[in-house]
Amino acid sequence: xxxxxxxxxxxxxxxxxxxxxxxxxxxxxxxxxxxxxxxxxxxxxxxxxxxxxxxxxxxxxxxxxxxxxxxxxxxxxxxxxxxxxxxxxxxxxxxxxxxxxxxxxxxxxxxxxxxxxxxxxxxxxxxxxxxxxxxxxxxxxxxxxxxxxxxxxxxxxxxxxxxxxxxxxxxxxxxxxxxxxxxxxxxxxxxxxxxxxxxxxxxxxxxxxxxxxxxxxxxxxxxxxxxxxxxxxxxxxxxxxxxxxxxxxxxxxxxxxxxxxxxxxxxxxxxxxxxxxxxxxxxxxxxxxxxxxxxxxxxxxxxxxxxxxxxxxxxxxxxxxxxxxxxxxxxxxxxxxxxxxxxxxxxxxxxxxxxxxxxxxxxxxxxxxxxxxxxxxxxxxxxxxxxxxxxxxxxxxxxxxxxxxxxxxxxxxxxxxxxxxxxxxxxxxxxxxxxxxxxxxxxxxxxxxxxxxxxxxxxxxxxxxxxxxxxxxxxxxxxxxxxxxxxxxxxxxxxxxxxxxxxxxxxxxxxxxxxxxxxxxxxxxxxxxxxxxxxxxxxxxxxxxxxxxxxxxxxxxxxxxxxxxxxxxxxxxxxxxxxxxxxxxxxxxx
RNA sequence: GCCGACUUAGCUCAGUGGUAGAGCAAUGCUUUUGUAAAGCAUGGGUCGUCGGUUCAAGUCCGACAGUCGGCUCCA
Length: 590
Fold this sequence. Notes:
Layout: H1 4-25, E1 30-33, E2 41-46, H2 62-74, E3 79-84, H3 86-92, H4 97-108, E4 113-118, E5 127-130, E6 144-154, E7 163-172, H5 175-191, H6 193-199, E8 203-204, E9 215-216, H7 218-237, E10 241-242, E11 248-250, H8 251-257, H9 259-263, E12 269-270, E13 279-281, H10 286-294, E14 305-309, E15 312-314, E16 330-332, E17 335-340, H11 345-360, E18 366-373, H12 386-402, E19 408-411, E20 420-426, E21 432-441, H13 444-447, E22 452-453, E23 459-460, E24 463-468, H14 473-483, E25 497-501, H15 507-519, E26 524-526, H16 533-542, E27 547-551, H17 553-558, E28 560-565, E29 570-574, H18 575-588
Parallel strand pairs: 10-14, 18-19, 25-26, 25-27
Antiparallel strand pairs: 1-2, 2-7, 3-4, 4-5, 6-7, 8-9, 11-13, 12-13, 14-17, 15-16, 17-24, 18-20, 20-21, 21-24, 22-23, 27-28, 28-29
Helix pairs in contact: 1-2, 6-14, 7-11, 7-14
This protein binds one RNA strand through strand 6, strand 7, helix 6, helix 9 and helix 16.
């Protein structure tokens, strides 16, 4: 087993083989750049260089490109590193504007310019690229690779630049490793919440309603509500009181908060028949909560003042940014805001962090904490005074250090109004999702002129903490569908139990059991359709119901039920025993 | 929004210019069943929308909408 660096080199070399093959097949294109990544490699090229006819490459061409790549690999060409001067480099890549740009940058930074030859330098069938390396020694070391997808990508990732074509692929040391990776991709696809959500009848999208605007079925609405309640119970413990705020507000509100200037184009504008005044659907709750705070004069004794709000939010996301339940135009948050004195910030942060921990626990997901700081090279991107930012950031660090909370500080991830703590959850497939966030706001209370009277009778500006415990219930539902592959734990399952009478003469007993389940609030369905028992079991299994209660002559006679779990195991027990078992399991949220 | 692909029955999909198909689901009848699919029958589609080419369009061309893979963005 070779190390991770070797795999990286291998992928980097595979990427060189890819662009050699593409250049051989389509000589008119310009090669831009391409790195190895944690998953494989990609490579960007300009398929419509100025003055040349555009070529179209689609995934249907992958077979042909892969064939050409194998050709290059089978020749086992040596890959060699050479240092050259900037002048030589300019000459060597004279026709390629993208390479010229790299060379100029290297010149400015006084970097050594290196090139890699695949094959003997300057020989027929060889390829040269401007590249920092490193690479494996020869193309023959690439034993397994596959091209995966094709997409557009902006040069330097900037949407003002030209759109290039990007080919994604991956390479491994062996065919077995590659197959394993491809299998994992398939698994992830099977868990896709858009597919499962439809199959499990949790939500639907409609052309008539619009993109990013889901309709939740009774089952989906139930899961959404259960997640809200899960959070609500916990946040009440730390003093958050639920409020309700309007979905539409005047533009003035967002002008005051500062959102208008930055997010005007990402908000839904509402037209009124009776006034020319601008209105917007609200994209966040904080300005409303500031207004609520300002509705009375506040004493230092009242603080901290904590509001929570599950209100619907609307954001006019660009069509291409929408993604199942992960990115919506209509969604909600388990949002909350705390107005407090400076000496209360530590405790408030810690309280919320505690609740976040408790809220994530039942999902069996690991997570890490990101301290999101401003971009110290570009402090002008953020609102407010530099000194206040610096002291706020070190204050957050202090809180974490003092309480031995592990975190990773990341620059440039702060909100425009202040630094924050983000909780990044890791799902069953090892993928990371930002869910919770606790943010310190240095700006908004001042903009709304919020004050409180302190002990000496002086007016002071409170601090504001924005927080979301699990983020958005809708987004979380999508995440959890994938995390559990649709098989929800009992407390979250829309259908916890299905009762399956074997034949018609067992239906009456089934109805009695149904009544007992109803009495203790278990969510069940009774399948009294005239189908074979095997078929009913199959249907229930596919609906991922947690427990099936199968009733035949034996059970009815003994007053028992046959309990079939989702994993296929079965066990006979008395009805009251089953009720206890289910009650305990729901309460423990296991 | 940008680059590319896709859109046929409730779902999954076949159909390469000549009268729209399958499986599952649904409905009806028969069967009354022991741990993942009983049998037979029936209904269901202006082939995403609009326009064009053609004697003839699900099929070819264009526009628009939506979905998917990415890019950009995410208060």
